[in-house]
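User: Please fill in residues for this 409-position structure.
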């Protein structure tokens, strides 16, 4: 699949700091020091009801990761998937009497437009589940042949017992896992499973549903977790730097993915850091497609909101916090954008070299975007109150805000 156009990232003087980031697997903050090429996999959308503010907030976090790495003069190898066939997508298409491929294509196109408007850097490899099927089938066959998977009425399940590290990403107890499994695509109550938590790797063809040739697995379609493992291993290999997504992906999705990869390669975990963004709520409840309490990026754009203001609203919350979207948050972001633009549109100003370092420090410290905004706010206040004579300062501030925060002033 094609991704979306990249906005240019200005180079800043000097060099940024290595990223310290909270890792769910080790439950602590770790310093990532990738080689010349940093590798990141971010779980993409299931293309219906895209792009809501919760999605945008999560992708904003991982966009910041890349901007920090680029500022350390590294290249970034970024891979993202699109879950363009899965139960919830098919259910939505059926509910609305639409063709599921048209629904997926339309929503993916909208997502690309929203990502472009928000200046999110595109992945180098943007891969749909459907196009990944030829790579998924041999992995499932290998898992089955190694005894890490078993068949149940034509479907193939992964055996969580095959992974001695199982639980090492989310650190949940068995009861919590069972509840979340039922909530998030699993089928813990299906009779005949070895362990209620075992996730499906390959679902045999169902009447009226799309299916593909699965070689020795028979016709069917892939499970959700193996999709991301196959795409990540194909394009990044093992031990890449970050696997990212919202906190609702820690279990079962990232846990199961790490287990699949462990059973395939003997290594654990697949990513050096498992990074999870907090959940955005609306009216007191997590913004979610199933509840329908959604604010769409495209709707805000259509109503005339500057995408840079949406981005500033996202940045005003720490990525790990759970927070609630409100009109006030957007209004504050609009006002902040105006103040910042007024400050950098002056022909000269007060020196900004220290500001560049403050923004770098804030972001390298577990992506502390609110601290970065506060640093820019302080410069803006002084700039408006004082008559400076540094001609390069307004340009340097614009480039810093663009390069590190993805906001075009
Ligand atoms: N296709 C899978 C990942 S492989 C999926 O979870 N798709 S999704 O469309 O449901 O979500 C896309 C991303 O947005 C995920 O990282 C998810 O954790 C995140 N997300 C979904 N809802 C919210 C929310 N309310 N707040 C923050 N992030 C969210
Ligand atoms: Zn995923």
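Assistant: Residues filled in for all 409 positions:
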């Amino acid at each position: 699949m094609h991704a979306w156009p990249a906005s240019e990232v200005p180079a800043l003087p000097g060099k940024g700091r290595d990223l310290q980031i909270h890792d769910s697997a080790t439950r602590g903050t770790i310093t990532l020091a990738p080689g010349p090429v940093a590798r990141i996999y971010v779980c993409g959308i299931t293309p219906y009801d895209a792009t809501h503010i919760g999605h945008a907030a999560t992708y904003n976090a991982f966009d910041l990761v890349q901007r920090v790495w680029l500022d350390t003069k590294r290249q970034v190898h970024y891979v993202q998937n699109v879950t363009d066939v899965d139960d919830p997508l098919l259910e939505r298409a059926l509910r609305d009497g639409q063709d599921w491929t048209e629904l997926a294509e339309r929503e993916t196109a909208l997502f690309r437009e929203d990502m472009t408007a928000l200046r999110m850097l595109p992945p180098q490899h943007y891969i749909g589940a459907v196009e990944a099927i030829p790579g998924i089938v041999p992995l499932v066959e290998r898992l089955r042949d190694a005894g890490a998977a078993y068949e149940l009425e034509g479907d193939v399940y992964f055996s969580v017992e095959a992974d001695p590290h199982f639980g090492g990403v989310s650190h949940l107890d068995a009861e919590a896992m069972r509840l979340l499994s039922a909530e998030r695509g699993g089928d813990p109550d299906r009779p005949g499973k070895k362990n209620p938590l075992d996730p499906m790797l390959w679902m045999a063809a169902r009447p009226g549903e799309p299916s593909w040739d699965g070689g020795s697995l028979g016709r069917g379609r892939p499970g959700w977790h193996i999709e991301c493992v196959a795409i990540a291993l194909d394009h990044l290999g093992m031990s890449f730097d970050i696997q990212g997504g919202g906190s609702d992906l820690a279990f079962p999705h990232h846990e199961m993915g790490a287990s699949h990869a462990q059973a395939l390669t003997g290594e654990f975990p697949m990513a050096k850091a498992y990074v999870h963004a907090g959940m955005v709520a609306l009216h007191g409840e997590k913004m979610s497609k199933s509840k329908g309490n959604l604010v769409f990026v495209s709707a805000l754009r259509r109503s005339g909101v500057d995408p840079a203001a949406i981005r500033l609203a996202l940045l005003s919350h720490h990525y790990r916090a759970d927070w609630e979207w409100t009109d006030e948050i957007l209004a504050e972001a609009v006002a902040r954008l105006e103040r910042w633009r007024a400050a950098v549109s002056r022909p000269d100003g007060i020196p900004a070299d220290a500001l560049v370092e403050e923004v770098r420090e804030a972001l390298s410290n577990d992506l502390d975007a609110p601290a970065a905004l506060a640093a820019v706010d302080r410069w803006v206040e002084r700039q408006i109150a004082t008559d400076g004579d540094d001609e390069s300062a307004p340009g340097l501030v614009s480039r810093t805000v663009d390069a590190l925060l993805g906001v075009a002033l």
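For context: Residues 1-409 form a domain with the Rossmann fold fold (CATH 3.40.50.620).
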